[in-house]
Amino acid sequence: MAPGIIKLRRHIMFIKLFTPGKIGNLRLANRMIVTSISTLTATDEGYATEQLMAYLARKAQGGWAMIITEYYAIAPHVGYFPRALGIWNDDLIKNHTELTRRVHQAGAKIAAQISHAGREIYHGHPRENAVSSSALKDVYGEFKPREMTIPEIKKIVSQFGDTARNLKKANFDAVEIYAAHGFLISNFLSKYTNHRTDEYGGSLRDRMRFLEEIVKDVRAKVGEDFPVLVRLSTKEFVPGGLSIAETRVIVKRMEELGIDAINCSQGIVTVSNNIVEPFQVGNAPFVDIAEEIKKIVTIPVITTGRINDADLAETTLLSGKSDFVGMARASLADPDLPNKVLAGRWDEIRHCIGCNQGCIGNNVRGEICRCMVNPEINREYQLDLTKAVDKKKIMIIGGGIAGCEAAITAARKGHDVTLYEKSDRLGGTWLIASLPLSKGELVSLVKWQISEMKRLNITIKLNSAPEVEEIVALSPDKVIIATGSQPCLPPVSGIESQSVVQANKILTQDAPFGENVVVIGGGSVGVETAEYMAFCGSSITIVEMRNEILPGLERETKIGLKEAIRHYRMDVIKSAKVVGIGDDYVAIEKNGKQIRLDDVDTVVVAAGSRSVNKLEAPLHEAGILTQVIGDAKQVRNGLAAMHEGYLAGYGA
Length: 652
Ligand code: SF4
Description:
This protein is globular. It has 22 helices and 28 strands. By secondary structure, the chain is of the alpha/beta class. The model is unreliable at 1-6 (pLDDT under 50). 54% of the residues are buried.
């Protein structure tokens, strides 16, 4: 079949996705919108840096109809994160005019989100800036906020309008009022956070007053024809929080006030697994909620939440439940997704896997937004992928995700790359990481890497682990060592007993397990393996040495795993050390006392891994240039492995 026919067919498959749409008077080329996601790449004074402009322009080139920026704080030091955008003076207007010029030139429309983080302001900001409807602290917030006085309310209303006016001056195509996720405006809307007894609290009509005043002030300052969107948490998922019934009243009122579109999200920071849904939540879990909103308004409705694929987006639109799809993380994973779909370059699309390691995970740690599957995000301003003049012979030892990523990038730079993998397949420990419940989608990364290596004609040698002499004989310019890691066995008496198995053997179904299981290790491997065995009917006890389980794991993923622990009624014993294993028992030590866990059928070990790196020293001795990456260097998460692989290939 001719390539042109294939292309035509694929385009027809996505007829809704590529139908132009309108928000107010703003014409949009298709139905795919990049919704807001923070990068932490602005300056502390609110300026858009070259890094941020290049990042947004890169997305605009990818074919998205409109980009909604990360939030513009309405005043200095009231953002959720450090380094928030702002536009409160003329110099900033000039800077942000350049930002809109760059995005327009690259082919997309751009809207700016405007916000005050309220009780969730970044802890580096002055404590007195933490204000809210009521003096109620969030469990994840740093500050207990002050209840806002009426003059403060009036001032902030006016600052929203001023910000919108300045954004219009900077040539933005629209503004979005951020009234979601437990930040200031939504604190007023929700009974959960609004305990006021004055005209801004009590009934829904009064709780809406703050938002209504903001909408009116913004409209007065931007004029009738300028598109204004509102982002709402349609359902908050906390006791007493906003319900869909209440949100229906709010959106109807927004429509009466002349709002041009409703951007539906859900959740608040307290339950952030509903805002940036991890893989456990599944795909497009909240489209039905958008439908509830769409039923009662005539203005466009945008739905968001784990829509990471063009098929899913098209199906969502075809169902009539939404007019546009918001695809924030999907645009991090692949800024070119719309254009690749249009061109039928289906296998080249990288999909967001819902890991949250690089995006919101980094943000919460106060670090620049990255993407686990796409290491180029926020590196656009300094990347040069032109072919290297000096073509090198690169050997990559190890076909896990770090080794594969190094191979792909080195080949893109024009080097001669051969990748060696000792097993019969690529993916390494990432394949095992994709086995726990709800994690199957992680494999899409390996599929993408395999397809990309094929496209780049990289030589792959499976079942191949070259020894030092063979490597030296091939005279490579560089060897990238990506030999991964191996699970550890803790030095405990009885660890060699037949009832003891490594967690990976359970996940690969290479070892049976009994009814009563003790899991040694409360990290993600231990808890995910425990969840799988509990799902199969086993009774689980997790023993963890530290005083917390799942340390370092992204908040959203942790919420889901802790829910699984509760759901399956697993016992968790923290600050306890396993000191002995017998035929049917495990002895632990806690608070200086020995305790025996009896009637144990299986002991599952999830006590971490150690690096495997046998090649570096002898190759170095033989005068071969080496670079060790990923788990072979130090056992860490997928984000570290992918980024190290990318940078090794880039700098090869
Ligand atoms: Fe998606 Fe993970 Fe990338 Fe975030 S870091 S955009 S969740 S793949």
